[in-house]
């Protein structure tokens, strides 16, 4: 009885032992799988942590680079302001030198007039002496009545001839002296004109260089703006990619669902969501101005398309170009919606101005070229020509150098005609008015005296 009952107990025990061993094996496999998953999670966490630290470092480096760029821009602006101040000082010195030269010429003219007066006085004294000598001779000789009358007639004729000769000599001397004065004045004016032309050419080249520098700055600002836009797009794409991955996490198997026949080599690895190179951060400036590629803008005076620095409402804080709807183009430094310091205005009709601006108006030294060929070089005040010594040329060959006030020729000036004639004197409202002298191309005096609204007064010849 005992043998028959014990054999089935051993079989059951052996089967239970095998089942327990299988369970232990399954538990070991599950533990190994959990360990592998934990290791994979640790690796992914470390990768994300390193990528985040790298991104933070890159942001700090970008901020440092931006601060250095801002400091460099401020230094460049300060240097430009210093250069502009030096140019203004040089222009003031040139104006003072020109005024001194004009004063010296006026003093020389006064000296020449004094010398002429002295010569006239000496001639009068000589005539008085001649008359006294003639009277003395008449008293000493005392001839007969007929001879006396004849001698008196002869002497009177001789004295009249002598007087005519003296008058002719005086006129010749005056003409020679006037010609010499005219030649000296023309030589001095030509030398002054050449020196001033050279100075104006230098200033023109300097203005052209400044315009080229402004254009280069505008191109650099456009490139920086394009680079900033690309930098701003990269973090957005990265955030969108990370949000998509966070919304769809990888499936993680549990112990209860893992089958016994699972192969560990077939478990997929979690991909890394961090790119090989961290994206660049956008440029965050403290200044409110920014660069815009194109922006429609209209004010009380202009309406068109603007490209350049912008503070959110109007052109401000740098270089820009405004293309007005009527075809006019404005280029230069902008401040509070107006051209300031240096700039260029080109109209559709062909007129061109480049020079100094103050609050949108021509103010300071500048060059104005009309479409018909006229050219003005000198100072401006509140948009009008106002200069003590400016130069204007006409396409038919005439030139004027002298004073401008209220956008017209007013004051002393020298006008050289195309045929060589020269007028030197006072002007009022673009016409000769007051004392003046007109000479031909050889320096001979044609008219000298008073002028009234462009016409010579006959009684003043």
Architecture overview:
The chain is α+β, with helices and mostly antiparallel strands and 461 residues long. The protein has a domain at 293-457: Single Sheet (Histone H3 K4-specific methyltransferase SET7/9 N-terminal domain), CATH 2.20.110. It contains 2 helices and 16 strands. The chain has a 16-stranded antiparallel beta sheet that branches. β15 and β16 (455-456) form a beta hairpin. It is rod-shaped and about 200 Å long.
In short, what is this structure?
The chain is built from two helices and 16 strands. It is α+β, with helices and mostly antiparallel strands. It has a domain at 293-457: Histone H3 K4-specific methyltransferase SET7/9 N-terminal domain.
Question: What fold name goes in the CATH topology slot of the domain at 293-457?
Answer: Histone H3 K4-specific methyltransferase SET7/9 N-terminal domain
Helix amount: 40-55%
The backbone outline, from C-alpha atoms, is: rod-shaped
Return the CATH class of the domain at 293-457: Mainly Beta
Could you say which structural class the secondary elements and strand pairing correspond to? alpha+beta
Q: Uncertain regions: pLDDT < 50 for 5+ in a row?
A: 248-286
The count of DSSP E runs of length 2 or more, i.e. the number of strands, is 16
Order of helices and strands: HHEEEEEEEEEEEEEEEE
Q: Sketch the major β-sheet.
A: 16 strands, antiparallel
CATH architecture grouping of the domain at 293-457:
Single Sheet
Number of distinct helices: 2
- Average pLDDT score: 78
CA(first)-CA(last) distance: 173 Å
- Gyration radius over CA: 49 Å
User: What name goes with the CATH superfamily of the domain at 293-457?
Assistant: Histone H3 K4-specific methyltransferase SET7/9 N-terminal domain
Beta-strand percentage range: 25-35%
């Amino acid at each position: 009885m005992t043998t028959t009952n014990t054999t089935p107990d051993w079989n059951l025990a052996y089967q239970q032992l095998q089942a327990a061993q299988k369970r232990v094996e399954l538990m070991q496999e599950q533990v190994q799988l959990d360990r592998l998953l934990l290791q994979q999670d640790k690796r992914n966490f470390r990768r994300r942590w390193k990528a985040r630290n790298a991104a933070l470092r890159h942001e700090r480096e970008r901020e440092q680079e931006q601060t250095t760029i801002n400091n460099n821009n401020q230094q460049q602006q300060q240097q430009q302001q210093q250069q502009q101040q030096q140019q203004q000082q040089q222009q003031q010195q040139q104006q003072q030198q020109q005024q001194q030269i004009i004063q010296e010429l006026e003093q020389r003219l006064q000296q020449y007039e004094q010398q002429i007066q002295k010569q006239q006085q000496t001639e009068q004294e000589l005539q008085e002496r001649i008359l006294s000598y003639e009277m003395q001779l008449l008293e000493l000789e005392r001839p007969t009545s007929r001879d006396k009358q004849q001698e008196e007639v002869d002497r009177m004729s001789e004295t009249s001839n002598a007087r005519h000769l003296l008058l002719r000599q005086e006129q010749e001397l005056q003409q020679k002296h006037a010609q010499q004065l005219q030649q000296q004045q023309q030589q001095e004016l030509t030398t002054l004109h050449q020196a001033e032309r050279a100075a104006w050419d230098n200033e023109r080249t300097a203005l052209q260089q400044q315009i080229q520098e402004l254009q280069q700055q505008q191109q650099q600002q456009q490139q920086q703006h394009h680079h900033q836009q690309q930098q701003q797009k990269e973090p957005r794409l990265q955030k969108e990619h990370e949000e998509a991955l966070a919304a769809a996490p990888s499936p993680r198997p549990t112990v209860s669902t893992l089958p016994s026949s699972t192969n560990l080599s077939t478990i997929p690895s979690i991909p890394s969501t961090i790119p090989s190179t961290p994206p660049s951060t956008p440029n965050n400036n403290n200044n409110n101005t920014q660069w815009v590629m194109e922006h429609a803008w209209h004010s009380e005076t202009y309406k068109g398309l603007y490209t350049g620095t912008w503070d959110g409402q109007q052109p401000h804080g740098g270089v820009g170009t405004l293309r007005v709807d009527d075809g006019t183009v404005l280029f230069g430094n902008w401040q509070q919606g107006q051209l300031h310091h240096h700039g260029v205005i080109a109209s559709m009709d062909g007129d061109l101005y480049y020079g100094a601006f103050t609050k949108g108006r021509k103010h300071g030294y500048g060059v104005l070229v009309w479409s018909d060929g006229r050219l003005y070089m000198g100072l401006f005040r509140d948009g009008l020509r106002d200069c003590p010594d400016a130069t204007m040329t006409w396409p038919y060959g005439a030139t004027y150098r002298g004073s401008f006030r209220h956008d017209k020729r007013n004051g002393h000036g020298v006008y050289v005609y195309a045929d060589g004639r020269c007028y030197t004197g006072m002007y009022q409202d673009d016409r000769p008015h007051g004392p003046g002298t007109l000479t031909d191309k050889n320096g001979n005096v044609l008219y000298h005296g008073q002028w009234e609204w462009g016409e010579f007064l006959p009684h003043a010849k």
